Amino acid sequence: MSKRFPKPEITLDGIYSKFADESFCKDFLLDIRFEKGFACPFCGGSEYRRIRSRHLLRCKFCKADISATNGTFMHRAHIPLRLWIVTAFLIMSNKCSVSAVTLMRALGVTYKTAWYILHRIRKAMKCREELYLLDGIVELDDTYLGAPTHGKKRGRGTEKVKMIVALSKNAAGNPEYVKMSDVPNLKGITVGRFARDNIRPGSKIESDNARSFQETVGTEILPCF
Ligand SMILES: [Zn+2]
Protein backbone atom coordinates (compact mmCIF):
# COMPACT_ATOMS: atom_id res chain seq x y z
CA MET A 1 0.00 0.00 0.00
CA SER A 2 1.44 3.32 -0.99
CA LYS A 3 2.13 5.87 1.70
CA ARG A 4 -0.08 8.95 1.66
CA PHE A 5 1.64 12.29 1.91
CA PRO A 6 -0.25 15.45 2.87
CA LYS A 7 -0.87 17.80 -0.02
CA PRO A 8 1.62 20.70 0.16
CA GLU A 9 0.14 24.16 0.65
CA ILE A 10 2.48 25.66 -1.95
CA THR A 11 3.90 23.84 -4.96
CA LEU A 12 6.61 24.78 -7.41
CA ASP A 13 4.01 24.80 -10.16
CA GLY A 14 1.87 27.14 -8.06
CA ILE A 15 4.83 29.49 -7.53
CA TYR A 16 5.56 29.62 -11.27
CA SER A 17 1.91 30.35 -12.03
CA LYS A 18 1.46 33.00 -9.37
CA PHE A 19 4.66 34.88 -10.17
CA ALA A 20 4.63 34.56 -13.96
CA ASP A 21 4.14 38.29 -14.43
CA GLU A 22 7.07 40.58 -13.58
CA SER A 23 4.81 43.52 -12.68
CA PHE A 24 2.95 41.36 -10.19
CA CYS A 25 6.31 40.32 -8.65
CA LYS A 26 7.33 43.97 -8.25
CA ASP A 27 4.10 44.88 -6.47
CA PHE A 28 4.19 41.73 -4.36
CA LEU A 29 7.75 42.35 -3.14
CA LEU A 30 7.06 46.04 -2.58
CA ASP A 31 4.08 45.16 -0.39
CA ILE A 32 5.91 42.63 1.78
CA ARG A 33 8.98 44.86 2.01
CA PHE A 34 7.00 47.60 3.73
CA GLU A 35 4.18 45.56 5.27
CA LYS A 36 5.18 46.81 8.75
CA GLY A 37 5.26 50.41 7.64
CA PHE A 38 7.19 52.51 5.17
CA ALA A 39 10.67 53.75 6.03
CA CYS A 40 12.54 55.55 3.28
CA PRO A 41 16.00 53.91 2.91
CA PHE A 42 17.48 57.33 2.06
CA CYS A 43 16.01 59.73 4.64
CA GLY A 44 13.97 57.53 6.99
CA GLY A 45 10.75 59.31 6.04
CA SER A 46 7.56 57.44 6.82
CA GLU A 47 5.19 58.93 4.26
CA TYR A 48 5.01 57.99 0.61
CA ARG A 49 2.95 58.17 -2.54
CA ARG A 50 2.44 55.03 -4.58
CA ILE A 51 3.15 55.28 -8.29
CA ARG A 52 1.33 52.22 -9.56
CA SER A 53 2.27 52.66 -13.22
CA ARG A 54 5.98 52.29 -12.33
CA HIS A 55 5.56 49.91 -9.36
CA LEU A 56 7.33 52.38 -7.07
CA LEU A 57 6.85 54.26 -3.83
CA ARG A 58 7.91 57.92 -3.82
CA CYS A 59 9.08 59.30 -0.49
CA LYS A 60 7.07 62.44 0.34
CA PHE A 61 10.03 63.97 2.14
CA CYS A 62 13.10 63.46 -0.10
CA LYS A 63 11.17 62.54 -3.28
CA ALA A 64 13.28 59.41 -3.81
CA ASP A 65 11.69 56.61 -5.82
CA ILE A 66 11.92 53.26 -4.07
CA SER A 67 11.36 50.05 -5.99
CA ALA A 68 10.89 46.52 -4.67
CA THR A 69 14.62 45.84 -5.01
CA ASN A 70 16.20 49.24 -4.41
CA GLY A 71 18.85 48.83 -1.69
CA THR A 72 18.24 45.08 -1.33
CA PHE A 73 20.36 42.07 -2.29
CA MET A 74 18.45 41.94 -5.64
CA HIS A 75 19.32 45.52 -6.62
CA ARG A 76 20.83 46.00 -10.09
CA ALA A 77 21.12 42.24 -10.62
CA HIS A 78 19.15 42.39 -13.91
CA ILE A 79 17.57 39.04 -13.10
CA PRO A 80 13.78 38.52 -13.33
CA LEU A 81 12.20 38.75 -9.90
CA ARG A 82 10.39 35.47 -10.56
CA LEU A 83 13.73 33.64 -10.46
CA TRP A 84 14.61 35.07 -7.04
CA ILE A 85 11.23 34.02 -5.68
CA VAL A 86 11.42 30.51 -7.15
CA THR A 87 14.93 30.10 -5.74
CA ALA A 88 13.79 31.22 -2.29
CA PHE A 89 11.00 28.64 -2.48
CA LEU A 90 13.46 25.88 -3.47
CA ILE A 91 15.81 26.77 -0.60
CA MET A 92 12.99 26.82 1.97
CA SER A 93 11.35 23.62 0.76
CA ASN A 94 14.50 21.48 0.64
CA LYS A 95 16.09 19.97 3.71
CA CYS A 96 19.38 19.68 1.84
CA SER A 97 21.08 22.74 0.43
CA VAL A 98 20.33 23.62 -3.18
CA SER A 99 23.40 23.50 -5.41
CA ALA A 100 24.15 25.89 -8.25
CA VAL A 101 23.92 22.97 -10.72
CA THR A 102 20.45 22.01 -9.43
CA LEU A 103 19.31 25.62 -9.66
CA MET A 104 20.79 26.02 -13.14
CA ARG A 105 18.67 23.09 -14.35
CA ALA A 106 15.53 24.15 -12.47
CA LEU A 107 15.59 27.75 -13.72
CA GLY A 108 17.09 27.15 -17.15
CA VAL A 109 19.84 29.72 -16.57
CA THR A 110 23.63 29.59 -16.85
CA TYR A 111 25.71 28.16 -14.02
CA LYS A 112 27.15 31.64 -13.40
CA THR A 113 23.67 33.14 -12.94
CA ALA A 114 22.53 30.28 -10.69
CA TRP A 115 25.64 30.63 -8.51
CA TYR A 116 25.13 34.40 -8.33
CA ILE A 117 21.50 34.10 -7.21
CA LEU A 118 22.37 31.53 -4.53
CA HIS A 119 25.33 33.55 -3.31
CA ARG A 120 23.24 36.72 -2.97
CA ILE A 121 20.39 34.96 -1.14
CA ARG A 122 22.68 33.10 1.27
CA LYS A 123 24.58 36.27 2.07
CA ALA A 124 21.31 38.08 2.81
CA MET A 125 20.11 35.20 5.01
CA LYS A 126 23.36 35.28 6.96
CA CYS A 127 23.11 39.05 7.51
CA ARG A 128 19.53 38.73 8.73
CA GLU A 129 20.42 35.84 11.02
CA GLU A 130 23.15 37.93 12.64
CA LEU A 131 20.63 40.63 13.56
CA TYR A 132 18.89 38.45 16.10
CA LEU A 133 19.88 37.01 19.46
CA LEU A 134 17.96 34.29 21.26
CA ASP A 135 16.49 35.37 24.57
CA GLY A 136 14.11 34.32 27.33
CA ILE A 137 14.51 30.64 28.15
CA VAL A 138 17.22 29.11 25.97
CA GLU A 139 18.08 25.43 25.84
CA LEU A 140 21.75 24.96 25.02
CA ASP A 141 23.26 21.63 24.06
CA ASP A 142 25.92 19.90 22.02
CA THR A 143 25.37 17.25 19.39
CA TYR A 144 27.29 15.37 16.71
CA LEU A 145 26.67 14.96 12.99
CA GLY A 146 27.91 12.08 10.87
CA ALA A 147 27.44 8.40 10.12
CA PRO A 148 27.68 5.91 13.03
CA THR A 149 31.24 4.85 13.73
CA HIS A 150 32.34 1.52 15.16
CA GLY A 151 35.31 1.06 17.43
CA LYS A 152 36.06 4.77 17.56
CA LYS A 153 35.82 7.36 20.32
CA ARG A 154 32.34 8.39 21.41
CA GLY A 155 30.92 11.44 23.17
CA ARG A 156 33.04 14.57 23.16
CA GLY A 157 36.05 12.64 21.82
CA THR A 158 34.21 11.55 18.67
CA GLU A 159 35.53 12.30 15.19
CA LYS A 160 32.05 13.32 14.02
CA VAL A 161 31.28 16.99 13.38
CA LYS A 162 30.65 18.74 16.69
CA MET A 163 27.68 21.09 16.85
CA ILE A 164 26.30 23.50 19.43
CA VAL A 165 22.54 24.05 19.30
CA ALA A 166 20.57 26.75 21.10
CA LEU A 167 16.77 26.72 21.16
CA SER A 168 14.67 29.53 22.62
CA LYS A 169 11.32 28.68 24.17
CA ASN A 170 8.31 30.77 25.11
CA ALA A 171 6.84 30.93 28.60
CA ALA A 172 4.75 27.82 27.89
CA GLY A 173 7.93 25.88 27.07
CA ASN A 174 7.18 25.64 23.35
CA PRO A 175 10.11 26.04 20.92
CA GLU A 176 10.41 29.33 19.05
CA TYR A 177 13.76 29.92 17.37
CA VAL A 178 16.90 27.87 16.93
CA LYS A 179 20.51 28.67 16.15
CA MET A 180 23.25 26.15 15.56
CA SER A 181 26.86 26.09 14.53
CA ASP A 182 29.54 23.54 13.81
CA VAL A 183 32.52 24.04 16.10
CA PRO A 184 36.08 22.70 16.19
CA ASN A 185 35.69 21.52 19.79
CA LEU A 186 33.43 21.82 22.83
CA LYS A 187 35.90 23.60 25.04
CA GLY A 188 34.70 26.33 27.34
CA ILE A 189 36.04 29.16 25.22
CA THR A 190 34.24 27.81 22.14
CA VAL A 191 30.89 27.39 23.89
CA GLY A 192 31.29 30.82 25.47
CA ARG A 193 31.94 32.44 22.10
CA PHE A 194 28.86 30.74 20.63
CA ALA A 195 26.73 31.90 23.58
CA ARG A 196 27.96 35.50 23.31
CA ASP A 197 27.29 35.58 19.56
CA ASN A 198 23.83 34.03 19.70
CA ILE A 199 22.21 34.50 23.12
CA ARG A 200 21.16 37.78 24.68
CA PRO A 201 22.83 38.44 28.06
CA GLY A 202 20.49 37.78 30.95
CA SER A 203 18.69 34.89 29.25
CA LYS A 204 17.89 31.86 31.36
CA ILE A 205 19.87 28.96 29.94
CA GLU A 206 18.91 25.32 30.39
CA SER A 207 21.27 22.50 29.54
CA ASP A 208 21.92 18.81 30.09
CA ASN A 209 25.54 19.85 30.41
CA ALA A 210 24.75 22.40 33.07
CA ARG A 211 27.96 21.91 34.98
CA SER A 212 30.36 22.24 32.07
CA PHE A 213 28.44 25.04 30.39
CA GLN A 214 28.06 26.86 33.73
CA GLU A 215 31.77 27.64 33.89
CA THR A 216 31.72 28.66 30.30
CA VAL A 217 28.85 31.01 29.74
CA GLY A 218 29.18 32.71 33.07
CA THR A 219 25.46 33.08 33.59
CA GLU A 220 22.72 31.17 35.30
CA ILE A 221 22.35 27.72 33.75
CA LEU A 222 19.64 25.37 34.93
CA PRO A 223 19.71 21.60 34.43
CA CYS A 224 17.34 20.53 31.67
CA PHE A 225 15.12 17.55 32.44
ZN1 LIG B 1 13.13 59.78 1.70
TrEMBL record:
Coiled coil: none annotated. Residues 21-64 form the Transposase zinc-ribbon domain. This is ISXO2-like transposase domain-containing protein. Pfam families: DDE_Tnp_IS1595, Zn_ribbon_IS1595. Transmembrane segments: none annotated. It comes from the Bacteria. Residues 134-216 form the ISXO2-like transposase domain. Signal peptide: none annotated.
